[in-house]
Write a structure and sequence with these properties.
This is CCR4-Not complex 3'-5'-exoribonuclease subunit Ccr4. One of its GO terms (molecular function) is endonuclease activity. By secondary structure, this protein is an alpha+beta fold. It folds into 2 domains: about 10-120, Leucine-rich repeat, LRR (right-handed beta-alpha superhelix); about 140-515, Deoxyribonuclease I, Chain A, CATH 3.60.10. About 20% of the residues lie in helices and about 25% in strands. It contains 12 helices and 21 strands. The protein has helices spanning about 100-110, 110-120, 145-150, 185, 190-205, 215-225, 245-250, 285-295, 330-350, 405-410, 430, 485, and strands spanning about 20-25, 45, 65-70, 90, 135, 155-165, 205-215, 230-235, 255-260, 265-275, 300-305, 315-320, 390-395, 415, 435, 440, 455, 460, 465-470, 475-480, 505-515. Mean pLDDT is about 90; it is low at about 140-155 and about 360-370.
Length: about 525
């Protein structure tokens, strides 16, 4: 389309979002349409030798762009939004009456330095609208078929609690190389940690499950900051920390679970180290287990809690599953191990003697709307087995809703020949398939999963979940999606308003009380 003396481009051109290169030099264009933001596959754009007096800010949305040529136009400035072009290798601007500072930067320091300058000087956009709270009532009063058949009754009470799950992006992982579209000041940990704390306090969840918390920040920042707000924490770093010295260990990340001490007391804590479990059973000692699973040091933190007023027991599992899409089999095996461990721990928890020295609603103040406990029982509930205990399994599963991990958790079983095992042999897991008894549902399953929980230029999708035991819990509310209009001008997180590449997921639950 070069040399045609075009004065404008047809709007239909911008529907071709499969285009990887657009050559429009030697025309008579005085501007480029903001609709160019639709061409999200572009790697090359050549608009040299036109009559352009400005470039649209929307060019900054083309994060795959590697070569941008606007030689010999009439540009006096560049939009700071071009700072989002973190993959840009060549920016050709010679032959334009640009300001001396811009010309000097690109001539002396090159394209990457100019992009960084534009990125850090870009004005902060208006903040998004607050995420809406969505009321859900689909589960209330519900009962699993298996419990009906076992002649147990199930009724709701007013005992509720909220749970947040949030991968906060570890300081060590937040590098310019990985997040080149983020202003350096917004990537700085001192800025992000305050923003994270603001989010945690804004929602005030009764249970907070964080991933990618390193030892240093847990000990030096989160413990004290959240203690001041009435929380106690349980934390374990990834397995590699066990082989490190005290100083090096401080930079290893892991999972941290916090709970309000006014509501819960900690009965027991457990760390699940996925690279250690295979050594406990000969049947799990397969080649794939040694070479693929045991080389990863992901962990889960399990907290056994008891409601101080009602005596209701809770199991809260907080996990960060391996990230690499090429290791779908490892993700499945790690989650299968987690479910095995939860069931074993739950059965042990169920056998503990119940408390009898409980406060009743008539002798203590109560709260409402996420954390209320107004049971009239004088003694705590008893549990015939671990599957009856209210259970939350949440974390960064690094698995999308169409994955084997999602199918396994939601259905309770998965065949050993499932494609996500990648034809590897994992002993009983692939010989017999994987199963669990917890009747899990995603907290967002009644609404449809969110559009995303992880938002970067290269990936936008759901990988973070709060799973709950639907035979003992009902989801009654959840935090809604991010403002869609805001996202039209944002290439990815983190940024000025979002401290991590993940967004928190949050849900409220009501206890479905069993009476035997």
């Amino acid at each position: 389309m070069g040399g045609l003396k075009l004065k404008s481009l047809s709007e239909s051109l911008f529907n071709y979002n499969f285009l990887t290169a657009l050559y429009i030099p030697h025309n008579s264009l005085t501007s480029l349409s903001p609709l160019i933001a639709r061409l999200t596959s572009l790697t090359i754009l050549d608009a040299s030798s036109n009559k352009l007096t400005s470039l649209p800010a929307e060019l900054g949305m083309l994060t795959t762009l590697q070569h941008l040529f606007v030689f010999d136009n009439h540009l006096t400035s560049l939009p700071p939004e071009l700072g989002s072009l973190h993959q840009l290798e060549e920016l050709g601007v010679e032959g334009n009456p640009l300001t001396e500072s811009l010309l000097s930067t690109i001539q002396k320091e090159g394209t990457s330095s100019l992009v960084a300058y534009l990125r850090d000087s870009c004005p902060v956009p208006l903040p998004p609208a607050e995420r809406e709270w969505v009321v859900i009532d689909s589960d209330v009063g519900g009962m699993a078929d298996s419990d009906r058949n076992n002649n147990t009754s199930n009724s709701t009470n007013n005992e509720t609690f909220t749970t947040m799950c949030y991968n906060i992006l570890c300081e060590r992982y937040a590098t310019d190389r990985m997040y080149g579209y983020t202003p350096s000041w917004a990537l700085n940990w001192d800025y992000r940690k305050d923003l994270i704390l603001q989010e945690l306090m804004q929602y005030g969840s009764d249970i907070i499950c964080l991933q990618e918390v390193d030892v240093e920040q847990y000990e030096d920042f989160f413990v004290q900051s959240l203690k001041e707000q009435g929380y106690e924490g349980v934390f374990y770093p990834k397995s590699r920390a066990r082989t490190m010295g005290s100083e090096e260990r401080r930079h290893v990340d892991g999972c941290a679970t916090f709970f309000k001490t006014s509501m819960f007391q900690l009965i027991e804590r457990e760390c699940v180290e996925f690279n250690q479990i295979p050594m406990r059973s000969e049947s799990h000692k397969t080649e794939a287990m040694f070479n693929r699973v045991m080389t990863k040091d992901n962990i889960a933190v399990i907290a056994l809690l008891e409601n101080r007023q009602s005596g209701t027991r809770h199991i809260v599992a907080n996990v960060h599953i391996h990230w690499d899409p090429e290791f779908r089999d490892v993700k499945l095996v790690q989650v299968a191990m987690l479910m095995d461990q939860i069931e074993q721990i739950a059965n042990r928890f169920a056998k503990l003697p119940k408390r009898t020295n409980l406060l009743t609603s008539s002798s203590s103040s109560t709260t409402t709307g996420g954390g209320g406990a107004t049971s009239q029982r004088a003694t705590a509930p008893s549990y015939t087995d671990g599957s009856k205990i209210p259970t939350i399994v949440c974390g960064d599963f690094n698995s999308i809703p169409s994955s084997g991990v999602y199918d396994y958790l939601s259905r309770g079983n998965l065949e050993g020949k499932h494609e996500d095992f990648n034809s590897h042999h994992y002993g009983p897991y692939t010989d017999n398939g994987v199963k669990h008894r917890l009747q899990l549902k995603s907290a967002y399953s009644h609404l449809g999963e969110l559009p995303f929980t992880n938002y970067t230029p290269g990936f936008k999708g759901v990988i973070d979940y709060i799973w709950y035991s639907s035979n003992s819990l009902a989801v009654i509310g959840a935090l809604g999606k991010i403002d869609e209009k805001y996202l039209l001008k944002v290439v990815g997180f983190p940024n000025a308003h979002f401290a991590s590449d993940h967004v928190p997921v949050l849900a409220e639950f009501r206890i479905l009380q069993f009476f035997q």
